[in-house]
Give the backbone structure.
Amino acid sequence: MTGSEESAYGGPVPSPLGHALGGLIVAWGLAPNGVRRLGPAPLNVLICIVAGVLPDVDFAWGGHNQQTHSMGAAVMAGGIVFAVSRSPRLAVAAALSWASHVLFDWLGSDDTPPLGVMALWPISSEFYFAHAYFFQAISRRYWLDNFIPHNTWAVAKEAALLGPLAALLLWWKSRRKGNRPIVN
Ligand SMILES: [Zn+2]
């Protein structure tokens, strides 16, 4: 049950774009010597982007913001990436990308109790919510008049908040010499 019928929006918060930017920021932020020679590393950047977006997979079974939105799930994601890639750096990047999703949803909007995310699962099943409303809720109510303006505004706000940070990281990293991909 999502309770999204009673929810004003019932969508992910922020949108997949915002979460993808979160993964991108982690990937670029952790690239040891810059991203100019990302060469073989786009796959690693993609893994971070996917890890940033994937916690919302719980929409598929109608339980948004539960176990997948937790530090426990972030650690598990890192463990799976490590098992496959044998790269500690990529594993940490994937775990942090996953954790960025939890952070963004904690800072975002929610109007469906229990508010927030199960951030500390499996240690605790309590929900945590910052009440910061840093990101706007994405509406899935396509039949409402304000569907397009509302979502355009919400996504534009995410891009305005996170885009410059991603661009700044890319610029800063790409200026440095001896650039290497995020993992070797
Ligand atoms: Zn989410």
The longest helix spans residues 147-175. The radius of gyration is 17 Å.
